[in-house]
Amino acid sequence: EQKQRTLLLPHEEPVPGFSQSFRASHQLARTLSQDRKSSATGQVAYLQKKAQQLAYVDEARLRPLPPQEKVVAQQGLISDLRRDCADHVSRADPQKPALRAQRLARQESFLASREARHNAACDEYERQMDALSEESRRLTGEASARMKARVDGAAARVDALLEPLEKSTDFLGEKTEEEVRGVLSALEEVTEQRGREIANFASELGGLETDRKERSSKLLKGLAEALSAAAHAVPGGIERIVEEKTLDLDAVLLENQKAVKVLTSKLQVQMVEASKASKKRWNEGLLLWKQKRHRHTVEMCMQRICSDEFEQPPGTVELLGQVRDLQCKVYDGRTELVRALFAAPLKGLTVSAVRSWEEQNTSTNDKAQDSFDHLFEDLRSFTEDLDASAETMLSNLCSELEGHDARAEWGDHESVSALIDADIRPPLKERLDALRALNVAAIGAVSRQEESQHHVLTQLLAFFMAIAKKGEQLRKGIDEFEMNYRGEIEDCVAEFREDCEKNEGVMKDFKCQIDDAAHHEALDELKLKAFEHLNSMEQHYREHSSQLLNIHNRYPGNVAGFFRQQTDGFCRDLGLALEPLPHEADPDASPEAEAAAAEAAAAAAAEAEGLSEWPEGAGSGSRVLEKLAVGELREKILGILAAAAAGAGASAGAAEGEGEAADPDGAEEADAGETAPSQEVPKLRDGTLVLETLDFEPSWLEENLTTLRTTVFTQLTADREHLDRIDITATCEEVRRELDQRLRRHTNRKGEVQVEWYVPRHTTVAKHKDKFERHLVDVAKKSQAHDESVEDLCKQMEVAEQTYQEKLESLRQRLQEAETLPMLTAFERQASDTSSAFWEACQNIKSKLLHLATRAPQELQKANKDFLKMCRSGEEQYSQSEVMFYNGEVEELNAAIEAKAKQREERTRELEEQLDEKRQGPFKAFMENYDESVEDLCATKGYGKKYGKPRRKAQGLCRTLVAHSATAKQKVTELIEYVGALCELPADGVVPFSALPPCSQFRLRDYFDASGEPWVFGAELLGALYVVVCALSALGTHLRAFKEDRAGRYQLDSVPSFRILREEEVLCNAEAEDAEEVASAELKLRQGCLEVVLGELVKADTFDAEIKNIVADAQKDSQETFKGAVPDFMTRFLEEMQDSANVARREAARGVREWSDQLRSAGLLRLGDVLFGELTARAVAELRQGTRETQAATVAQWADFDGKRAAHEHRLSPGLSNPNAEAELRELIEAEAARSERALAMAGEDRVRMAACLRSLGDTFVQRLSASFLSAVRLVDGIPLHTHFDALPGDEQAENPRMSIKRRMRHLQNGTSVDQWGDGLPERRWVGVPQHELRALLRSDPWPEDEALASEETLQEQTPAIDSFRSPLHKRLYERRNFYYDRYLAEFKAEVERRNSELAARAENEEVGQRNWLSMVRQLQGDSSGTGPGSDGGGAAA
User: Fold this and answer.
1) In 3D, which of 1023, 881, 995, 1377 has the Cα closest to residue 1169?
2) pLDDT tens digits, 606-618
3) CB neighbours of 262 closer than 8 A, spacing ≥ 6?
4) What are the distances in angstroms from CA 431 to CA 310, 435, 1287?
């Protein structure tokens, strides 16, 4: 344990932290004393107030009380009775004293019983009061015992919290500052809990006193009632008795309250003193903790320094382990490479394979070097990181020790840095330097070992490269030797085959010439030339056989010379030699060359003397001698490596500056198969070797070299046996046998030429000549038959022409018999058919003539072509000469056929030019007579294009008019069905455009898009109904379907221009700024839709007027056509047309009436549900969306306000109770006050915005609902009534609806006419909905004032009423409008309440938060009355 020293000497100046520690204790004591004084002042004030209350009670008790009014009244009454009875008192009966005594005795007894009851009531009261007092004493004692237990428990908790800082200090240094500070927070929490328990104790005692007072009051009331019932004392006496009891009770209660206040004050003072003592004890524990923490921190740092973290870091051990693993991996790879070198057979030992091994070795070296570099770099990085970690550790240690400020632990050092540099940094530096030295030693050892292994493997690869090159030379030489041998044979055989092919080609040419000959003389000449060529071929066979035998006889000697040369090359590399051959003189060599050769042979023989034979080389065909032993061979291969290693050691010694010269004999003395002796391998702290020692064993290398020799000569033996496998004697015998066979086959070829070539060709030539003559005869017969057919067809055409003329003449004579146009048309059709039949017959004959002029000659030419094709096909064995000969003959025959074809074609063209004239001449004469007959008949009967034009024109116009009406009727039907489909849609939700049923006539949304107005479903429904009403009015007016007195009401111009494109308006406002643009857009919608629905009827006159115009025009055209009065047939036709058109008009009018009735009775019953239901659903959705958007506008600002309040509350820590932090506390209080003020202002602004949003949405809904209702009623009014239609056939059978008896009686009672409405509906005024009922929900507090609702008259306003009619459909619309208005009113009211509660909750939350803030500020300042520094600002903000 270190020696303690004085913290502050007299001559030293204290540091700020040292002085602040003691200053904080004095400040805490001063603050607690202030709290205690303020509590004592309140207690004195309370006691003074109590004394005043007691004095008031005493004064009231001594003050005389006036008699009660009822007592005064009773006494007055008794006095009056006494005065009145003074003269009327009867004397006692002297004769009955016993009765008087009994009466007095009873009176005495009665008074005694009342007195007993009086006393019993008082005794019972005293007994109950004693019991109540005892119970109160017991309950108070129990509460005091519980409070004492809580106080003792709080003291025990304080002792338990401070126990680690005072008693169990062995492990105090291991605790963090947060844990120590946490003890202070826990102490403050215990104090706060104790304060709350004191307050609860005082509240509990107060509750006991309150209960005692209430129960005592009940007892006093019972006493008063019992005394009054006993009637022993007068009421004044009873009151005085109760008052005395009450005063006694009040005195007791007052004393109890005084005792409670005194006890509470003492408990609070005791709590403050205990808090002060606990904080003092905690400060002492904090100083002790700093010392303990200082020692613990230094101890932990030294443990880290002496641990494996710096002695033997796990990271360094792991990295060195990776280096060892990499060493073993690289060594294993190199060992496997050496094994692969020695294990490879000579056939597989190629230069490319060795080069691949070299590349593998190079790659292995590069990868190993890169891996070693990375690992060494990781070692350096780890060492640097360890240095940085050490510095960080020392820096953290320095910061922590300075934070603890335990100067007693610094010793003689002036600062923490000096303490660390003197006591902690030296051992840390020693361990870090040892790690760096270990890394450097490991890197050097790995480099030396890698260099040694690399050089060994490099020399072995160079040796095997030489063996591989000789192996490839051997394989290449064997291949070339065999190739040369086979090449000579193949060249000889190929040359022979080439000559044979040439000779056979000459024979084939003779064969082709014989086969091509077209005459017998040429055949004889070719046969003689073929015989001469066969004789020259026999001599060529004999020369080829002699050349081939010479090549086979030279083969054995060439094999022996080749193998001696190859074996000698392998022996030089493997430390072996061949026994030299005796010198043989070369007669062709010069004397100098001969002498040099003899000298070289003698030198070789001298060198081979004394060498032992190597028996395993006998299979090569030569005697092999062992020149070097295996060990010498290894030294020879690796000698360069030893010299290199010695040189590297010398250079290294010179570089290190040791001054020692390299041993010149070191290369000779060192083992050639071993590396230079390595330095000692470094070790870790626990003795573990850092690296592995890995070298190639010399014995293993020598064993592999011996195996290599055997492998090489085994392959040489196998290759020699491979070349000796050819049997030369058998090969030469085979050549002679082939020559004999070839000569025997050649002798028979002359007979083949005579029998197989010459004789068959001679026979074929004679057969071909006979076949060509037969073909010529057949072509001549077919050409004659074609000429005869041409003559027959010309005669058939003349007969057909004569028959055609006779038929037309017969039809022309019958034209006068026709009385109607169909009969004339039938004659004309027969003439046309006759003409067509004649034309078809002529065309048929012409086609046949053209066939004989073109196709028939072509078929003959095709037969000639087929004959030539047959000649060229080869099936009949025609030669080329024959084909050329017959080709010339056929060309002459084709020229003759072509001449005949031209003659026939010219004759056919002449007949074709005459055909049109032969047909059109007679037919034209017939048609002239036909036209004259038609003109005469049309003039008489009114037929034809000219005379029938007025009738056709009138009929076409009438049918067009009826068709237009039918088309309009169909389109109106489709439009009414579309309106019905819209009314069938669900009424409880928003209807999007995609949910609409298809409308094939127009698309109203296009007009909304063009005008820039938003499309809504209500506008779609009203727009479609608007078009239906306009179409019904226009079509009914056109058909003259209405009564004359009602027709003006249903004119198209009488239908008002509704505002379909804007939902909030009903009609177009002519006074608006954009009145012209609005009117143009609405007119465009109306006209466009009506043009689609009604078509041409939009601009047409009435149906009857159009018919009259058609009749007038027809009469005028008839007069112009017939040059006078209208014919009778035309007059009858026009009358029938008018009757038919009138029937069509009535049926169309009936359809319009049925549509109107259907719409009023059933089609539009759901109009109100769909129209107002969809509007309400859409308005409710807009209401919720609008309020959500209005609320979301300030969500971010409220989040910012809440975040600032949370930050302020977080900053309001106990540390701000320090007087030095008063400025910061005041700044924080002012910031919170400003934030609260802005938040409350924001709450008001939110309410204003929400009120504006709700009012705007409510007004918009009322406006749209009113406009939709007005539009729907006006459109329903525009639907024609059944009684307004003109009577139609069949109406007389229908029964008109009758008025009910109830309604008739009502009219009679009211004195009104039953038929006052005529054929119309009863008039009715439909009132509107409340105009400002929705805004009125936002009129009261806390909503802002609504200037629009300044007066009560404004609140009673309603939307405009509408003067209309009464019908079930009108009632349905009115009822549905009110229903959906009530639904929206309920939704609007719920939304207002919901938003009001949200806004109120926000404001209340802000106010509650502000109150909590003020409470926290007062608690922090220790001012329960709210008169601290923050009371002004907080109060202003609140």
Assistant:
1) 1377
2) 666 777 777 777 7
3) 43
4) 6, 6, 126
